[in-house]
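FW: tagging you since you asked about this chain on Friday. Here's the raw sequence from the shared folder, copied in full. Didn't touch anything.
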Amino acid sequence: MSTRGLRKIVLLHGHPDPDRARLGYALADAYERGARSAGHEVHRVDIADLDIGFLRTKRQWEEELPAPEILALREKVAASDHLAIFFPLWLGAMPAYCKAFWEQLLRTGSPQNGNESAPSILRGKSARMVVTMGMPAPFFRWYFGGYGVRSFERSVLKSMGVAPLRRTLFGSVERRDAAALQGWAAAMHEMGRRCN
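HL: got it, structure written out here
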């Protein structure tokens, strides 16, 4: 692969549990290995390693600066070409801690901070969303209309300029055997290698 095809990837792993035995970590690891094997630059963030506060007021959203590590991550996201976003489905949507992370990342912050406004950091990036769930993925798409994932796609990612946006749903995760899980990891490795 030529250097012209190499991309800067920010991998955001949104499982709030720091237990690295969770499936989401294995899938994110496989994607990261695939991307690095192809020469892509990867900056990874596991939100379980962050101390994220919950926003409770309009004043916090508009006037207070996020933590320095969030501000540094905004710069990484702004400089990236592609986002790889991993999270489990809890009660039909992303976990509250993962949502709190996105609120911190994308809030306005102080207008005096001199940084690029938070929503504009997503403009012009491509993204891959990888969502794990206990229910069968076709049932989530058919019966629930995929709402918990589609609302994040439309209300946040697409409205802030992310395109193209691809999604992979892995369902019935507790009932999968080792061969199926290895197949999923292999698929993630290839997606990372191709950066899509």
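FW: Residues 15 and 22 are 9 Å apart (CA to CA).
HL: agreed, and The chain has one domain: 3-194.
FW: great, closing this out.
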